[in-house]
Amino acid sequence: MSAEPKRALSFPKEEIRVLLLEKISQEAVNMFRAEGFQVESCDALTEDELVAKIPSVHVLGVRSKTRVTRRVLEASKRLLAVGCFCIGTDQTDLEAAAELGKPVINAPFANTRSVAELIISEIIALVRQLGDRNKECHEGKWFKVSKNCYEVRGKVLGIVGYGHVGSQVSVLAESLGMIVRFYDHVPKLPLGNAQAVPSLQELLQSSDIVTLHVPLTPDTIGMIGEEEIKLMKKGSYLLNAARGQVIDLEAVARAVRSKHLAGVAVDVFPDEPATNGDEFKCPLQGLPNVILTPHIGGSTEEAQAGIGREVAGKIINFINSGSTIGCVNLPEMFLPHSKGAHRILNFHKNQPGVLRDINQLLSGYNVMGQMLMTRGSVGYLIIDVEAEVSDEIRQQMANLPASIKTRLLY
């Protein structure tokens, strides 16, 4: 029996450059370096700085501060993938990345528990006015107060957005004896004794405490403003660890001053400083029973390590096998390796005639494995072919009118 032909990599691993911004976990750094990649870590970059740096980068890793704009992506001639080392991906132009054949990968689960625990701790802190009592004691003042301080047991918690974080908050809150209700525009299976309500308005009117856990979309921008706050009970509490653009901070500040809201906790803001130590301004500063935190919902050692492992692992799988499992802007695909084959990856425009052209091109060759899927305006093709003809097929595939990006993986 002849030995299996050695698989030649299309691009040497030691020449793959990874740029990680915003203090991404060392776990990710270690995983990339273990693959033989070159890794550079630095603080957040401005758009101009990133445009200047990106042309030589093959993998870009960001968190929430760095804007990965169309301009950045169009300058990234060698970029294979973008890793969002967080839950959200709104810092990245997903449409532009898809059009250019660049997968964007995130970690939708890894920091869920950390955010949920922060919310529960802030709920307890708000209903007990712990922030104010702490501040007073630090100032040498002694005010032992029970008026308007409460237990959370028996209180109605309204969760807006019952996804990964919202559902975890639900479980933790119920274990404290809270009554949990939630609103989500997509039907979701309630956990425990949580109950879905049919509208945001009903949720706001019936809840003692409201916490927001929604993505940033055109529908969620400004979803809590003056009118929505008026629907909330007098003396209720509002928390936001979703996205800064979801609530009107000026309206929230007015509601705190008028005592319509008894307390507020905010972890995300419309405009956040780029680096630690920069000046921060917010309409809620200086108001009583208001907790302001610098976007630390997922900032725990466990969460950051988990995110680092998850996103780095998915990116490594894409580079090594073409797997796009976990990709948010392109088809999610995984094709097992065909023994003795070379693999070709092709991103192309999803337009009439593409499948005909691909099948016509491949009709003269022995295809050992093939998978094609489309998502929106882009299609993704993985094919395994005989090693002797792989480069020939790659060149023909790249020359198809609809091709965006073609890579001979091995």
Tell me what you see in this structure.
With 410 residues, the chain is α/β, with parallel strands linked by helices. It has 3 domains: 15-111 and 301-327, NAD(P)-binding Rossmann-like Domain (Rossmann fold, 3-Layer(aba) Sandwich); 112-292, Rossmann fold; 331-410, ACT domain (Alpha-Beta Plaits, 2-Layer Sandwich), CATH 3.30.70. Helix content is 31%, strand content 20%. It has helices at 26-34, 47-53, 70-75, 94-99, 112-127, 130-138, 164-175, 200-206, 226-231, 249-257, 301-321, 354-362, 390-398; strands spanning 17-21, 38-42, 59-62, 81-84, 104-105, 156-160, 179-183, 195-196, 209-212, 236-240, 261-266, 290-292, 341-349, 367-375, 378-386, 403-408. α1 runs parallel beside α11 and α5 packs across α7 (164-175). The two termini are 23 Å apart. 40% of the residues are buried.
Beta strand count: 16
What is the H/E order?
A: EHEHEHEHEHHEHEEHEHEHEEHEHEEHE
Number of domain units: 3
CATH homologous superfamily name of the largest domain? NAD(P)-binding Rossmann-like Domain
Supply the key terms.
410 residues; alpha/beta; Rossmann fold; Alpha-Beta Plaits; seven-stranded parallel sheet; five-stranded parallel sheet; 13 helices; 31% helix; elongated
In short:
The protein has 410 residues and is of the alpha/beta class. The chain has three domains: 15-111 and 301-327, 3-Layer(aba) Sandwich (Rossmann fold), CATH 3.40.50; 112-292, NAD(P)-binding Rossmann-like Domain (Rossmann fold), CATH 3.40.50; 331-410, ACT domain (Alpha-Beta Plaits), CATH 3.30.70.260. It is built from 13 helices and 16 strands.
